[in-house]
Design goal:
This protein is of the alpha+beta class. It contains 14 helices and 20 strands. It is globular.
Length: 472
């Protein structure tokens, strides 16, 4: 039993030893006794969600809102302290998400969207993405979509909206400062429950344990599924920026692919934008520590500087535009508004990488969000994939419960996994491919990616296809 908690020959932690002791006591207590479904002394729930971030909390709200599942007891475990709420009159925060149409529909279905609308958010009306090693660019104008391409929303505002719905739900209990120490999952479909123990010693059992506990998911590790992960050796730098007084309509999302990674400006309001700058680890740390004025200069230069060009790519882009009867790319290119200041204390960095679990489910457990998949932020799809998981999982659980299946039945949970894989894998491979394509200045690659971008710009059906994908 102890070997379950020894990693690479290391010693077990005190918490892990407590888990082993609890299991041994449970085994001793039930010897020559009828089979029990949970450890004596543990509180039982129908569903336990491990992780109270954006995805986990939204899942709790969606479960409570679903008519078929409204009678199920749900426990939401949050490792941090109690969420303090969001002040819509306060300073803008540096962690934001580009929320697509499908995610907005999910928020509407659980009653959270009106809360966000009443606070603050910024619709993105247009996008421009362009290359630094050639003239290639793509623009999404108003005639490419009938509604907003995305909405930029602060993460804590999303949490505030979904927490408001969760706190109204009679069947959902929130447990703060609750960190999972260890997990035990049923080995088959015999009817035994999933069990977990917290670091403070409390234990719980449930029909279905949902891992929403991030890229280092303890639930996923206990499931024993294969995981493909990759460290990009890149970091993301975020900040809140003040724009110049000459801005008249800050509703455009700007992204330029630089030699070390993309830099993006996302509108927050008419005078503020949010920065997401993906670059090397050393440059990210350097930019984070620069004096404010020097940082602003470096950022403005990143959007306007002329980098080493690939002449063949430029000529190919010009020929393509001529073939389609379009004006020269230089005449189409617009530049983002000039940044005049960075908000104090708003700069922060985070590591970038790729992760995907080979399976999202097993008997008694399922994964959602970053516990199942992690992507580069260049396409703004990460949290939207997590919200898509929420929608698919709630739909599958409701259909299974209506048909008489147990919540933790793998034979029904697999339907959730299939839906997610069909959507997530193509998007993840596409985002990973873009990262790989734009991580080199090798001339043939620059030529190919420039032609791809410019073909998309000149062919409305292809452009609209990409646009619909980005919008969800």
């Amino acid at each position: 039993m102890l070997s379950l908690f020894l990693h690479n020959g290391g010693a077990a932690s005190k918490g892990q030893l407590r888990c082993v002791a609890a299991r041994l006591l449970s085994t001793t207590a039930t010897t020559n006794a009828p089979t029990t479904t949970s450890t004596p002394g543990s509180e039982h729930f129908d569903i336990i969600i491990g992780g109270g971030g954006l995805v986990g909390t939204t899942l709790a709200a969606a479960l409570a809102k679903n008519d078929t599942l409204a009678d199920k007891r749900v426990l939401l475990l949050e490792g941090a302290g109690e969420f303090k709420g969001f002040d819509a009159s306060g300073l803008y925060q540096n962690r934001v998400s580009a929320i697509n149409r499908n995610s907005i529909e999910l928020f509407k279905s659980i009653g959270a969207w009106s809360h966000i609308e009443a606070a603050r958010y910024k619709p993105v009306k247009q996008m421009q993405v362009w290359e630094s090693n050639s003239d290639a660019l793509i623009q999404f104008q108003h005639d490419n979509f009938a509604s907003d391409v995305a909405c930029i929303i602060e993460n804590d505002l999303i949490l505030d909206a979904v927490y408001a719905r969760v706190r109204e739900a009679a069947n959902v209990q929130i447990l703060n400062k609750a960190r999972i120490e260890c997990v035990r999952l049923p080995k088959d479909t015999s009817g035994s429950h999933s069990e977990l123990q917290l670091q403070d010693g409390r234990s719980f059992s449930c029909e279905l344990l949902i891992g929403a506990d991030g890229a280092n998911s303890i639930v996923r590790k206990e499931m024993g599924v294969d995981v493909f992960s990759m460290n990009y050796d890149r970091m993301g730098l975020v900040a809140t920026l003040e724009l110049g007084d000459d801005v008249c309509d800050n509703s455009v999302a700007w992204q330029r692919f630089l030699p070390n990674g993309p830099v993006a400006l996302l509108p927050l309001n008419e005078k503020l934008s949010s920065l997401v700058w993906s670059t090397t680890v050393s440059q990210a740390k350097h930019l984070k520590d620069l004096p404010p004025a020097e940082f602003v200069d470096a950022l403005n230069e990143a959007f306007c500087r002329q980098y080493a060009r690939v002449d063949l790519a430029d000529k190919a882009v010009q020929a393509l535009n001529s073939f389609f009867g379009q004006q020269a790319t230089q005449n189409q290119l617009q530049y983002p508004p000039r940044v005049c200041a960075v908000k104090d204390g708003s700069r922060a960095t985070f590591p970038l990488g790729f992760l995907h679990a080979s399976s999202y489910v097993c008997s008694g457990a399922a994964l959602v969000g970053d516990a199942a998949h992690r992507v580069h932020p260049l396409a703004g799809q990460g949290v939207n994939l997590g919200f898509s998981d929420v929608r698919y999982l709630v739909e599958s659980l409701a259909a299974g419960a209506y048909a008489g299946f147990k919540l933790g039945d793998k034979q029904h949970l697999i339907k959730y996994e299939r839906k997610c894989l069909a959507k997530n894998v193509p998007i993840m491979l596409g985002v990973h491919g873009l990262h790989a394509l734009y991580s080199t200045e090798f001339s043939p690659v620059v030529l190919l990616r420039s032609l791809g971008v410019q073909l998309t710009q000149n062919l409305p059906p292809i452009k609209n296809l990409f646009m619909k994908g980005a919008m969800g």
